[in-house]
Write a sequence for this structure.
């Protein structure tokens, strides 16, 4: 956007980032809060984004040998209790079903029927390791049953009080993979493979650069031996954890008795993994790309690639304009990109053209086309793109336009990734001095600090207390990045001066 | 299956239909009961069926202008209370969330934290009219916002004590459409249109013939003005309601204050509809087509169309057989049918060929192919089909096989529908005498009785008490069926002798 122009979203990112985010989500019609505390309503434009995420991820899961299945929404309390760390991690904020009936109350209205109390309370799943573990224990008998590679698309509930649309809600939609293997090596390979799937999805589809690597012990999934994550940088320079993959060792197989007979006819506990990503990805997508005019959607996940609408001058040539639009929309729909046909929205609503334009800008549709009598007469198409100023336009002949638009979409997808990568890299800094770290977070706006750490939780507490920062992960050096080599250098802990074998990524986070 | 052969499923349909059903579901690996009372686990083969159902239905919903969205899992008690009939229908069997935390109990272990009691109990949605109504009230302001055409894919919970896999479970997966319109006529048109979508889906995809029409007042959805259903006949001659579409009038818009400003600037309540179908469809599919050898899947919804595996004779030409199979499988995958590529499962598991064959028979894969050294040497493919005796086989040259298999799949889809239609029609009877009705249900095995009814609930009660039968619907005459015309004849109620304008469909049901 050119300077001095008024932007469509108020406040701007610079004025109030948190409020800007809510406003972008609202203005793009992605989601809204619901009358049920902590639960959101995902509106059609937001849900279409989720459907696109689902479709592409699901394809990647199936290509790596996984099958979908569905397990119960409820987890008996006793199941959750089987793994001590796990239950401690989730018991504090869960929805508990205690009764199965309402009856008329003494003063009219309905009350919970005290006679209909469950023998054992049921927890609405916050994650499904324990219930799926109990089922896997039946499915896994022999080494022939392994590996067992399952994924579930489902809703989960974690009783959050401070919620933000997509980023943190009591109920959210996600997928959770659960696998069982005959050997530790295989399970570790699976954990790593799915982390790579998440990273590939984030970068190639969401155009969101990520770092990937193990979390520290204090940031592990409750009950896991190792947790790996992908971490992205938002435009406020805070990190967003966008997917996690857990090596669970034999912790859950011991808790759930997932045992198998080996080829040698001995019995062993299986090695399990789990991995998940959620509607939180949409929050990451919004915060990575959007600007002060609203949502920006990477074309590869866009619910619609192109929005077209007419601009009439009185009654002049109305019919011809409508025909021209319908015919051109169909020509675009015959163009395939990334394995699917272009999605084209023809917007014939009876509202002002200017309002329409800004609506599509705010919704982040990658390409906008207004067709007026002059376009029809000239046999041309005038195109505006979401990654340029709203007023910048290019005119193509109708014949060349489909190929040009296809190229614009590809360029836009690439451009968004490059811009986000540049932003991430510009805001990543090697810091070996504790005072410089303070200045980085408190004065210079923060970002990813690559620091040496002595491996102790005490130092992690100090990072948190002093700078509200946490170790995001022990990142693998990302390819093609100038500072990548600095990650694996040895040195001395920025707090204690103790030796450190490599640098870690320290940042404030969502 | 030829007579005197042992069948793969025990008991057979004739021996114990209910038990046969459970056994087919189990043997096909579709689903199983879970450790959570009333909730099922949908296994990969069953879930793949559901994914195919979802994909095709979703396409039909979108083609009729609907968009997907997602609404909260929880419904505050006060919302459910807004519509009196509605709450009466669902309060008796619902899962109630009363607390949001577990804490350590005095004797160790976890207990529900009495301090974490919710101010208002939340009901796990049994259906979402009331919560979606509250949201629609915000979305609908002007006639310009109408029609509002929304669908949701979700899980719902109704606290059932007597459950059967797919047919009746406490938690199930479904889709629920919710729409709001400016006029009664439009809402009635929508109700009818979605009933037609369900009927088309049942017949064209599931190969399951259905009757469609309004339910009687006593069988209406709680809170609806009119409920329409599709009704299929299972092989035990009982009816299965497989989808419902409700005209809700202004009942829910009054309860939820869904009001809009008309063009004339007056304010009116919107007219709403809702319509749903669920994983119960899978139960209907199983009971419509399966036989005493197990599941039979209509090819159009089959998770895999073809299963291929090798039969080795010692070590002779192993490698050549495997190559032949992989190459032929890929040739099949290049064949498109019903808008998608054929799904081919190459089964290389190290188990006996005979076991493998029966496993695929029981799973209902439409076409099975065993490849041995003689097939490779002769350049042929030997094909067995699920709609013939397991031992009947046809041999094709490899070159002609893909087209032949495609034709077999089409023929099988058509054949299943024809067989099921014939069965339904053979077991549909016009009955005008009450004693003949008794004989029909109690001695002749029942079916669909086309009877005159005086329109009173008293007569419906008598049907239920005397024959455990209910009026399934006031069916539209199905096209191309001999008895269709008999539906619209006038006559006298089979119980009271009072005049009746048309016949209704009376049957025992699931």
């Amino acid at each position: 956007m050119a300077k001095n122009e008024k932007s469509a979203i108020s406040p701007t990112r610079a004025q109030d980032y948190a409020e800007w985010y809510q406003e972008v989500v609202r203005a793009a019609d992605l989601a809204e809060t619901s009358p049920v505390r902590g639960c959101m309503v995902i509106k059609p434009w937001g849900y279409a984004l989720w459907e696109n995420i689902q479709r592409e991820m699901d394809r990647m899961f199936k290509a790596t040998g996984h099958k979908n299945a569905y397990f119960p929404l409820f987890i008996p309390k006793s199941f959750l209790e089987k793994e001590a760390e796990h239950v401690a991690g989730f018991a504090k904020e869960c929805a508990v079903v205690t009764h199965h009936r309402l009856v008329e109350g003494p003063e009219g209205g309905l009350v919970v029927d005290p006679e209909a109390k469950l023998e054992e309370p049921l927890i609405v799943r916050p994650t499904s390791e324990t219930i799926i573990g109990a089922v896997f224990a039946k499915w896994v008998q022999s080494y022939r049953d392994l590996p067992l590679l399952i994924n579930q698309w489902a809703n989960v509930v974690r009783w959050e009080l401070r919620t933000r649309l997509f980023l943190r809600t009591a109920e959210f939609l996600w997928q959770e993979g659960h696998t069982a293997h005959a050997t530790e090596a295989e399970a570790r390979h699976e954990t790593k493979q799915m982390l790579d799937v998440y990273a590939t999805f984030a970068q190639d589809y969401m155009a969101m650069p990520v770092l990937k690597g193990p979390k520290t012990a204090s940031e592990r999934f409750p009950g896991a031996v190792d947790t790996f994550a992908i971490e992205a940088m938002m435009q406020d320079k805070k990190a967003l954890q966008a997917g996690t993959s857990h090596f669970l060792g034999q912790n859950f197989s011991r808790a759930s008795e997932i045992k198998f007979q080996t080829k040698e006819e001995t019995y062993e506990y299986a090695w399990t993994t789990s991995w998940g990503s959620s509607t939180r990805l949409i929050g990451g997508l919004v915060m990575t790309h959007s600007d002060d005019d609203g949502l920006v959607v990477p074309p590869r996940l866009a619910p619609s690639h192109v929005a077209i609408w007419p601009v009439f001058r009185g009654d002049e040539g109305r019919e011809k304009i409508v025909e021209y639009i319908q015919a051109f929309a169909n020509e675009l729909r015959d163009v395939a990109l990334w394995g699917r046909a272009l999605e084209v929205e023809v917007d014939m609503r009876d509202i002002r053209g200017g309002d329409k334009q800004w609506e599509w800008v705010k919704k982040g549709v990658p390409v906008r086309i207004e067709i007026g009598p002059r376009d029809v007469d000239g046999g041309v198409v005038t195109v505006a793109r979401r990654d340029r100023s709203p007023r910048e336009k290019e005119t193509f002949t109708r014949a060349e336009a489909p190929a040009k638009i296809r190229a614009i979409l590809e360029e836009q997808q690439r451009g968004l990734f490059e811009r986000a990568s540049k932003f991430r890299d510009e805001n990543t800094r090697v810091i070996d001095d504790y005072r410089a770290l303070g200045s980085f977070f408190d004065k210079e706006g923060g970002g990813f600090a690559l620091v040496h750490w002595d491996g102790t939780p005490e130092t992690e507490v100090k990072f948190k207390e002093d700078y509200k920062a946490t170790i995001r992960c022990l990142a693998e050096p990302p390819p093609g990045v100038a500072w990548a080599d600095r990650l694996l250098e040895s040195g001395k802990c920025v707090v204690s001066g103790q030796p450190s074998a490599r640098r870690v990524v320290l940042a404030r986070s969502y």
